[in-house]
Amino acid sequence: MTSQSGPDPIVLTLFANRFMSVAEAMGRSLRQTSISTNIKERLDFSCALFAPDGDLVANAPFIPIHLGSMSFAVKYQMQRHGKTLKDGDVLMTNSPHAGGSSVTAVPISSAHVLKPPHSHLPDITIITPVFDTTTHEILFFTASRGHHADIGGILPGSMPPTSVSIFEEGAEIDSFKIVDGGVFDQKGLYEYMIEKPARYPGSSGCRNIRDVESDLKAQIAANYKGVQLLRAMVEEYGLKTVQENMYHIRANAENSVRNLLVDVAKRAGSNVLTAVDYLDDGTPIQLRVEIDEKRRSAMLDFEGTGCEVRGNLNAPISVVHSAVIYCMRAMLDVEIPLNAGCLVPLDVRIPKNSVLSPSRTAAVCGGNVLTSQRIVDVVLKAFHACAASQGCTNNLTFGTGGKNGDGVAVAGWGYYETIAGGSGAGCGWHGTSGVHTHITNTRIGDVEILERRYPVLVHRFGLRPGSGGDGEWRGGDGVVREIEVTHPLQVSILSERRTRAPYGMEGGGAGVMGRNTWIKQRR
């Protein structure tokens, strides 16, 4: 219901929660029907709803780094397939590049998306159009993104710390119709996941295609659950009412961010905010925020950020937008779904050929999980919201299989987990200890499940006392996780904040840097 003064706030809240409940139901379906440890136990997945123009409508509280960039993926697929999509089609993609190196400002609500956008290769997105059963027009899209623990590449787990090219990180899928008119294309899936990545020197195809295929089918089923619930909502309220409230929810998010920008400028006593931080290799992430109080908008300019790096800390522009939209939503003191409206008042400018706008073949697996954390810290630092958090997802992978010394493919598997840390403190509150922070929201691998399924023993898992940083309001402490490998495995760690400590704020102390230790037993 809409009055002359605007939408009914009660009705708006009800519809916001109804949309979020659809995403939550999709998530429950995905968890119940998946089989991999990373998706079923660690909950490294996200589900969301999108408008017919590809803008994010609503989501459940899943993984922030997924949710901001999924809109890019939906819009790219819309452009790629146009009006050729039909009921029963399901699309699959994981290609991480959006807009190439020529994009300097790409609002997430923009319809101009030139290249297939994503975060990093293990995050595979499944997209399903929701058609009107009468007019056959697209009403919504449902989408799910899951982190698949092995999709090929040079190391089990598909998160190699030494990668210098995207081809070393596993299978890349620009656009694949995994379901065509209701028919699952297993042959095409195997070609993308096994055959193509194995053609690159030193790389292997997916080491455990059975788990990946099963989890992809779980994502397809989760999307269909969303399709059913959205159609039921339209049948109950009528398409006009549902879509009106969908756009009102977006407008409400936009207005909330505009109010935030004005409040921040007044509290800071300045319309210009700046911040800089550095990756462990010295690459700067620099930000200048200019707030226009009259227009209630802001420009976020990352000019001065370092150039593309040879390693894998490059972050595609969709990752930058994910970090920004997360920060905007996190700083709001009103309960609204994270959606595209949060970015409408913002002009995000990303310098060409930088670590935040890498070239087509650049390695990116670390940019999604490490550089993204540094972007969040820099945005929150500029807005004076809180001290730095752990700034790292502490990525641990291990597994077996791939090409042997003779170049013959050997079946195997890959395991992936992120290890918790501490969150930064703010004015009036302590940080939280032993949690995943900011762009990730997964669980850590359960010790009993980990030891039962894999050849490892966890000797210690607990807090790292005093590591959070001193102050009137203390930062949250990190953790210690000691794992013994009981069988020959390939193990790798991809991490940050090992040479540059998480900084304090307002005179507060810095947190303790992370440390990776490898102990080799003599047998």
UniProtKB/TrEMBL annotation:
GO terms for biological process: glutathione metabolic process. GO terms for cellular component: cytosol. One of its GO terms (molecular function) is 5-oxoprolinase (ATP-hydrolyzing) activity. Residues 8-520 form the Hydantoinase B/oxoprolinase domain. PANTHER family: 5-OXOPROLINASE (PTHR11365:SF2), 5-OXOPROLINASE RELATED (PTHR11365). This is Hydantoinase B/oxoprolinase. It comes from Boletus edulis BED1. The lineage of its organism: Eukaryota, Fungi, Dikarya, Basidiomycota, Agaricomycotina.
